[in-house]
């Protein structure tokens, strides 16, 4: 492949079997998905900024997850919306690789954030007396910044490796965005070594944190079972079950998509692979604000207080409601 015409741009195809009459409907769906993700997670960020009572380690990691979800949706969805709204799926060569890097970056970052969240809950429940000194705001902020930095390493290696490879054939990406699996089929040389390296990196950054998450939740369950029966036990179990559901949605479909190419006689159609990828990538960012925030007592109280202020009532210390008279 010494004499080849370098591809200057790529084209996002999206769902290859989707009929044109459904393009606008799909565009509206992804637009609604993006707005819901951005507004829901931005509301959490604004609330954290305005309410000093939320300046605690647990909420710091929640805000980190919210910012990561906004970042992923912003990188992945606008071009997909443009592809179905205006039939504009073209991406410049380097723009595509930038998108690929950021897609895998936010995927890695979310895995590390979930690890940090599990660590925080593990210390809070299993070591309640030592938790205030072990996990301070400064410690959590440092862990968060470390996650945002180190998450670039493995995606960066894969991105640089693929950028240096020759693309001399078709430029249509049968996917919703640029990623390693869709780009490797467009390279005009053997990519088995590069793809194996990318796959190993992905498995490491995803499933080493998952191993600790599983270990931490086992320890949490054991600690909760030792508690006296009561509302505290049920609340802890409810929180763990909710987070376990999100973790399962994040990890299990992703693993299935990654290992399919390595299992003989097991294939996924492009449409099913794209739909599965979109599900595990975009469903958690949409519901995370509702699960992690609306189920949190402190945040629900803040919402209630904000709504009461807008209606012209103020809560008293004893929970009574007092009308606020407005004078000119």
Secondary structure topology:
Blueprint: E1 9-12, H1 23-50, H2 57-85, E2 90-92, H3 93-126, H4 131-134, H5 137-150, H6 153-163, E3 172-173, H7 180-184, H8 192-225, H9 231-259, H10 270-292, H11 297-310, E4 313-315, E5 321-323
Parallel strand pairs: 1-3
Antiparallel strand pairs: 1-2, 4-5
Helix pairs in contact: 1-2, 1-10, 2-3, 2-5, 2-10, 3-5, 3-6, 3-8, 6-8, 8-9, 9-10
Describe this structure in words.
One of its GO terms (molecular function) is G protein-coupled receptor activity. It is found in: Cell membrane. One of its GO terms (cellular component) is plasma membrane. The chain crosses the membrane at residues 22-46, 58-82, 102-119, 140-162, 204-225, 237-257, 277-295. There is one protein chain. The protein is mainly alpha-helical and 328 residues long. The chain has one domain (9-307): Rhopdopsin 7-helix transmembrane proteins. Helices cover 69% and strands 5% of the residues. The protein has helices spanning 23-50, 57-85, 93-126, 131-134, 137-150, 153-163, 180-184, 192-225, 231-259, 270-292, 297-310; strands at residues 9-12, 90-92, 172-173, 313-315, 321-323. β4 (313-315) and β5 (321-323) form a beta hairpin. The chain is globular, with a radius of gyration of 23 Å. Residues 317-328 have low confidence and may be disordered.
């Amino acid at each position: 492949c010494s004499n080849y015409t370098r591809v200057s741009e790529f084209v996002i195809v999206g769902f290859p079997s989707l009929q044109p009459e459904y393009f606008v409907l799909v565009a509206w769906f992804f637009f609604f998905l993006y707005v819901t993700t951005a507004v829901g997670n931005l509301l959490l960020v604004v609330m954290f900024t305005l309410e000093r009572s939320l300046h605690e380690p647990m909420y710091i990691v929640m805000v980190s997850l919210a910012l990561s979800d906004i970042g992923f949706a912003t990188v992945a969805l606008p071009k997909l919306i443009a592809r179905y709204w205006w039939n504009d799926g073209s991406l410049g060569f380097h723009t595509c690789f930038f998108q690929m890097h950021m897609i895998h970056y936010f995927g890695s970052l979310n895995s590390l954030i979930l690890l940090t969240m599990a660590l925080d809950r593990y210390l809070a429940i299993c070591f309640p007396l030592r938790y205030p000194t072990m996990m301070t705001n400064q410690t959590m902020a440092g862990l968060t910044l470390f996650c945002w930095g180190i998450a670039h390493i493995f995606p960066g290696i894969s991105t640089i490796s693929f950028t240096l490879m020759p693309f001399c054939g078709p430029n249509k990406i049968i996917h919703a965005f640029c990623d390693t699996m869709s780009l490797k089929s467009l390279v005009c040389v053997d990519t088995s070594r590069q793809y194996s390296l990318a796959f190993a990196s992905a498995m490491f950054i995803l499933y080493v944190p998952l191993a600790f998450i599983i270990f931490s939740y086992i320890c949490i369950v054991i600690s909760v079972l030792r508690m006296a029966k009561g509302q505290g036990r049920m609340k802890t179990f409810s929180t763990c079950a909710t987070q376990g559901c999100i973790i399962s949605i994040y990890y299990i479909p992703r693993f299935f998509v990654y290992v399919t190419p390595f299992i003989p006689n097991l294939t996924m159609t492009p449409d099913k692979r794209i739909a599965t990828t979109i599900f595990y990538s975009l469903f958690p960012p949409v519901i995370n604000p509702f699960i992690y925030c609306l189920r949190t007592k402190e945040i629900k109280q803040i919402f209630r207080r904000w709504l009461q202020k807008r209606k012209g009532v103020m809560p008293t210390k004893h929970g009574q409601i007092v009308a606020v008279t407005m004078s000119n």
